[in-house]
Structure formats: C-alpha cells, structure tokens
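Tokens help. One example:
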Amino acid sequence: RRMNADERAELLRLANLATIPSIQKMLTELAAASPVDAPAITDTPASAPAPAKVGSAPRQPGIVHKITTYAWDQSPAKIKIFVTMPGVEALPEEAVKLECTETSVKLTVQKEAGQTHSLFVELAKKIDPQQSTHKVKKGRVSLDLTKKSSQTWPYLTAAEQKAADTKAPKISDSADPGESLREMMRNMYEEGDDDMKKMIGQAWTESQQKRAAE
C-alpha cells in the first residue's frame, strides 16, 4: 500500500536516531523510495523533534586526580620538586599553573578535557612566592622554590616536620640537671614503643640499684 506523510516522517525520524550506519541508510532509502499519499515533506518537519547526534554522549563532570608521587631536592637557597607526567610538554602553556603562598604550593595541570591533575604541598618552612617558578620539560614539571632564608630543610612538608617535633625528647628548663634528665626519660618512656620502654625500664632499674649501693 501507499505510505502516508506521517509514516514517512516516522521513518526519517528513526533514521536520524539510528546509530548503526547500515540501518540509518536503509531507513533513509526506504523513506525516499516509497510513494506517499500527500505531497512530500521535508526531512526535518516543524512538528518532528530535532535529529539526534549519532554517537553523542553526555558531558562528564570534571575529575581531579591527586598527585601523591614526586621527588625533591634542595640547595641552601632553593627547594626543587619534580613531578613526572608523560606528555605534559605537549600541553598549551596555560594548562600548567603554579600557585604559591609562603607556606604552600599548588600545581594544577589540565591534561585533557575534564581531567585535572593537582599537587598540593604544605611546606615545613617558608618560601618567597614571588621568586618561585615552574618549568615544563619532557615528561615532567619542575618547581623551583626560593627559600625565605638560606638554610637546610630537614623535611619538606609541614606534616613531616610536626611528626619529628612531636617525637623529639623534651628537656625541661629546670635548674636541676638530674630532674631534667629524669623528665626526658619519662617522656621517652611514655612516647616510645615496647622495646624502648623495656630498655628505659632496665636502665632505670640499674640506675636505682647503683644509687642504693652507694
């Protein structure tokens, strides 16, 4: 039987929605070859929905990848941080951004659409943000940070420095050297592991025995 205008419009709509090229071609040819009862209509009638884009996908929200692996080195005046990132040299200049404060650095790399790579380091000591820069090299980004004062940093991050300060034995300002030593031993005993406590306990016992013998 002859095809009416609505049926032909439906065939064209299905052709626009099809994602397989062979199916799309078959539907389009069928609509074009079949006679209609009414005058021919356009491929995109006003009453029909707009053709869907074949193979289109919804835009994904931005994803931030946290950079946790890096290397660092220092000189008396500088701190250098090295971040390995294959292909970074091919990115536009504005895709790599460094933000510095006196006590922190943040590196942001927009590597591809919706994919951001970020490194944040809270520093153990102060730097000069105005004199700190970054360089993009083949397969890596180098951060060149200028120290606020020339000195050797035992640690890079504030967390490492805080942990070391917490573990360090605390010596009292007491005028009695013996009392200061005993207080330091007590702090070491309270904060030490089982082996440390055993060693301190044994040393304390031997010390008491020697004092009693005297």
About this structure: DSSP finds five helices and eight strands in the chain. The first strand starts at residue 63 and ends at 66. Helices lie at 5-17, 21-33, 158-167, 177-191, 194-213.
